[in-house]
Amino acid sequence: MKLSVNLAERSYTITIAAGAFAAGLEAVKERKANNKSKIVCVADAAVLSLNPDKAASIGEFADIIPVEGGEGSKCFEKFAQLSSELALRGADRKSALVAWGGGVVGDLTGYLAASYMRGIEFYQMPTTLLAMVDSSVGGKTGINIPEGKNLVGAFHQPIGVFADIDFLKTLPPREFAAGMAEVVKCALIGDFELFSAIKATKGTFNPESPYLPEAIRRSCALKARVVSADERESAASGGRALLNLGHTFAHAIEKTSGFGAYLHGEAVAIGLVMAAQLSADLGYANVRAEVEETLKKCALPVRLSARLPMDDFMEAISHDKKNAGGALKFVLIDRIGKAFTQVVEREKVVRVVSEFLG
Ligand SMILES: NC(=O)c1ccc[n+]([C@@H]2O[C@H](COP(=O)([O-])OP(=O)(O)OC[C@H]3O[C@@H](n4cnc5c(N)ncnc54)[C@H](O)[C@@H]3O)[C@@H](O)[C@H]2O)c1
């Protein structure tokens, strides 16, 4: 199945299928045949060792540079090292990069592509669920600095995304579940049917679930729609900011608990429940129970596993918001499948936070 991200001259296609990797390979090979320039594939080291045959096929026409998955690789040192590698290997303005891995490899490689020679083209070949439904689509690229996550980056759209669902078979279950948090988020923002289908799952939603390809397609379609309408998150209300549903709470959970205690998707799951409670408190949708039930179907947490200090948590929320101009603006749920942004009084936020922090 194919979807389009419509951004005038920066438009591109997302191909989602078991076997999409082969289609991606053909597209990259054809590009190389046409313009003869070097192709460099930045690849997740775990993905490389799990897929020696696929690595060999890319290696026939591209240089492969392995990078460890995990947040630690999204740093200046790695960015500097890769920039030098590109120069040493003779990459030029017509060269293209391939990001083959999860969100870490995608964000890092995307930023490298945005910066090298003031911008070269790149392809996304996501291998985690999170990367397939979220990070590979939309053009946000970047790295972390000690002062915060994703503080340095650029908008740089890929020229093609090839999401091969077969890669998900080797993904650790906890990483798969973390990706499902973003799927549930997309459903809450704009896809009632998607939400209902996940909620109706018998047992746990897993990589073998027959509905998975459709869930990925629907999540990507939602993201493509939102990004096409508000590429740089500049809309005064709604727009790309809707994709942050649950994320202000999630960022505060990650920061206050010390990065690493929760996977990002796990923090997002708890953040979605908090956003549902905030929405209910403000007189909008009263859907917390349904949200919890659906997240549990995805083997995701709906509560914190340990107490967190209130002051630090509210400080983290204010910090997240300061970057957006000071007001405590949240994404709220109007009904399942419809979200909106609104400024919320601090004490209403405190009430929700204090229930969750215990
Ligand atoms: N750019 C965006 O719009 C955007 C959106 C959401 C998240 N992100 C970023 O995405 C990053 C997280 O991405 P992630 O969750 O994919 O993490 P990740 O890239 O670190 O991958 C998670 C783990 O899975 C391993 N892995 C990857 N593919 C595998 C496979 N097929 N089989 C087995 N193991 C595999 C990796 O080696 C790693 O250990 C964060 O840095 C976050 O900031 C970016």
Strand count, sense and barrel status of the largest sheet are: 7 strands, mixed
Which homologous superfamily in CATH is the superfamily of the largest domain? Dehydroquinate synthase-like - alpha domain
Determine the structural class based on helices, strands and strand pairing. Answer: alpha/beta
One letter per element, helices H and strands E, the order comes to: EEHEHHEHEHEHEEEHHHHHHHEEH
The tally of domains stands at 2
**Whole-Å distance between the termini?**
45 Å
The tally of helices reads 14
What's the CATH first level of the largest domain?
Mainly Alpha
Please mark out the parts with pLDDT under 50 across 5 or more consecutive residues, or reply none. Answer: none
Helix content: 40-55%
Radius of gyration from the alpha-carbon trace, in angstroms: 20 Å
* CATH fold-level assignment of the largest domain: Dehydroquinate synthase-like, alpha domain
Strand content: 15-25%
Q: What order do the strands of the largest sheet run in, or round the barrel if closed?
A: 1-2-9-6-5-3-4
At CATH level 2, the architecture of the largest domain is Up-down Bundle
| Coarse morphology | globular
